Amino acid sequence: MIKNKSKITIMGLGYIGLPTASILATKGHQVLGVDVNSKAVDTINKGEIHIVEPDLDILVKSAVNSGQLKAAMKPEKADVFFLCVPTPFHDDMSANLDYIEAATKSIAPLVEKGNLVVLESTSPPLTTRFVGDIIDKHAGLSAGEDYYLVHAPERVLPGNILKEAVGNDRVIGGINKESAMAAKTFYESFVTGEIYLTDDVTAEMSKLVENTSRDVQIAFANELSIISDKLNIDVYELIDLANKHPRVDILQPGPGVGGHCIAVDPWFIVDKFPEETRLIRSAREVNLNKPNYVVEKVAAKANKFKKPVIGCLGLAYKANIDDLRESPSVEIYHKLTEKNIGEVIACEPNIPVGLHEKTGIKNFPLDEVLDKSDILVLLVDNKEFKEINYGAINEKVIIDTKGLWRK
Ligand code: SAJ
Fold first, then answer.
1. How far apart are CA 358 and CA 49, in angstroms?
2. In whole angstroms, how far apart are CA 2 and each of 19, 75, 80?
3. Chain Cα centroid distance, residue 351
4. pLDDT (tens digit, 9 = 90+) per residue, 174-196?
5. Which of 134, 286, 298, 386 gets the most CB atoms within 10 Å of its CB?
């Protein structure tokens, strides 16, 4: 039986694995976090962090200092194994399970009777069974009978991970009922939200459906924003008014949908059911096309100028974070630059001023962008942009994709 103070091995020390490892360590479990990135391992063993997430540095420091959390490049025997590795997608939009497969293979020889194995990574349907098949083959065990195996999809919101990792309700899908029950007992040692038990495939789909539902709803808002432009009405006012209806709750339009979750997960369903996913695919396409629409809108305004300076405000995939992955704002910046319709400059207050290595974009101070630009394109509703004195910029052409500066 899994004890309150267990030995835990966590595969993957990214946005999910590291917070989970440090929360469990501070609850008295003995945690070994494993990552293929030696720099990340060294950083964590010094009590420091390699990702940006509020308050995570304090938690990791205390977990490492107490001796309850250690990082390494190789897993060890444990009572509970967590798989918290990324699930990116291939060029054909199918899920890339290479990280899950490699992590599973490396724990497989260590799994023993009575252990609990938890797949937290977002995964297409039947991945939990794929994990079980690998372990069974390498360990000579039978998932569900000899050891417990579950999918417990993470649901945390970047920027609010520590709170949500503990407080969110959780769905746990077991390969059988005994597995689900064993995992529930274990999760109760650190989760305060409700825990709902189901089978592995329903749990896999529930996670994909949560993010897909949001993608579909944002696509609706994005489509409304294009229609509103044609009608010359304010889409934000339109949505506000429609949302006064007691059973209507439309989300907000923007420059597109970014991040490594909502822009990715719907493809896992589309890939498995290409014939049945017309709505999900269309929504994805609407959201994927929104950056192009923004670029064309800017180009139309730029026509009025000889060689305008175009200032992009915001580069991250959403407000008040430094995460630029799958960011529609980065795409818009590059497409505007390629169009050669003017000088394109940008300011993202959440990353350092200067050249950003991964995107090749030069990040300018806010004042400089506000001062130099003829056209301001607001792409992210960062708090710094909310505080801009509108009087100082109202001479400029403004394209506000987030409705932040509505009068
Ligand atoms: N966005 C809009 N309009 C909206 C809301 C969001 O355009 O009304 C855009 C954002 O600007 C951003 C993208 O959508 O580009 C996604 O942002 P988000 O804050 O909605 O979600 P993520 O990707 O940061 O985190 C999501 C969360 N899922 C849900 O809310 C259903 C989180 O709970 C998941 O744990 C996470 O995905 C994940 O890891 O899967």
1. 19
2. 21, 19, 8
3. 18
4. 999 999 999 999 999 999 999 99
5. 298
